């Protein structure tokens, strides 16, 4: 039996300093069109950002002895998808206006001929990316029944 997953419901990021992370994510998530809500869970403060597709939440770490390492087991980076190269550039312009350091957006042909992205990090060093909805992803999305049994590299 197989169930068709229709999307990501939510993502949780654990942060070392909730106040610093909230200030950072308030700016970034607003730039990306998310809205914010605060709702404690189990007595712990949680900050939730959401759009019509999914939620992105931050919560305080219970252990502060280890900073994020994208090359240790676990999350390597999180990537937001936008519609176009122009949208990626608009995000980069917004990051600049917000004084958030980022790598200049560019094409990454080693990933795909039309892969265009901007990378930046949060206060804990979690790598974040914004990329365009490129041709192969768009084709797969729009023609899933034709593509679902193909093998992808």
Number of strands: 8
CATH level-two architecture of the largest domain: Roll
Could you say what the CATH topology of the largest domain is called? 2,3-Dihydroxybiphenyl 1,2-Dioxygenase, domain 1
Distance between the termini: 24 Å
Strand order of the largest sheet: 1-4-3-2
Average pLDDT confidence is: 91
Q: What is Rg? A: 17 Å
Q: Provide the number of structural domains.
A: 2
Query: What is the helix fraction of residues, given as a range?
Result: 25-40%
Which superfamily, in CATH terms, is the homologous superfamily of the largest domain?
Answer: 2,3-Dihydroxybiphenyl 1,2-Dioxygenase, domain 1
Please outline what is shown here.
The chain is 25% helix and 26% strand. With 153 residues, it is α/β, with parallel strands linked by helices.
Write the layout of secondary structure elements.
Blueprint: E1 10-15, H1 18-31, E2 35-38, E3 47-50, E4 55-60, E5 77-82, H2 85-97, E6 106-107, E7 116-121, E8 127-132, H3 135-142, H4 144-147
Parallel strand pairs: 1-4, 5-8
Antiparallel strand pairs: 2-3, 3-4, 6-7, 7-8
């Amino acid at each position: 039996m197989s169930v068709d997953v229709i999307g990501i419901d939510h993502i949780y990021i654990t942060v070392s300093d909730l106040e610093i992370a909230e200030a950072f994510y308030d700016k970034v998530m607003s730039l990306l069109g998310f809205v914010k809500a605060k709702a404690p869970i189990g007595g712990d403060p949680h900050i939730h950002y959401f759009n019509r597709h999914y939620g992105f939440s931050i919560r305080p770490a219970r252990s502060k002895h280890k900073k994020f390492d994208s090359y240790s087991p676990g999350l390597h980076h999180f990537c937001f998808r936008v519609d176009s190269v122009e949208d990626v550039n608009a995000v980069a312009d917004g990051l600049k206006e917000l004084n958030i350091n980022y790598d200049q957006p560019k094409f990454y042909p080693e990933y795909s001929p039309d892969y265009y992205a901007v990378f930046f990090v949060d206060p804990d060093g979690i790598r974040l990316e914004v990329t365009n909805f490129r041709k192969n992803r768009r084709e797969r999305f729009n023609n899933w029944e034709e593509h679902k049994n193909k093998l992808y590299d």
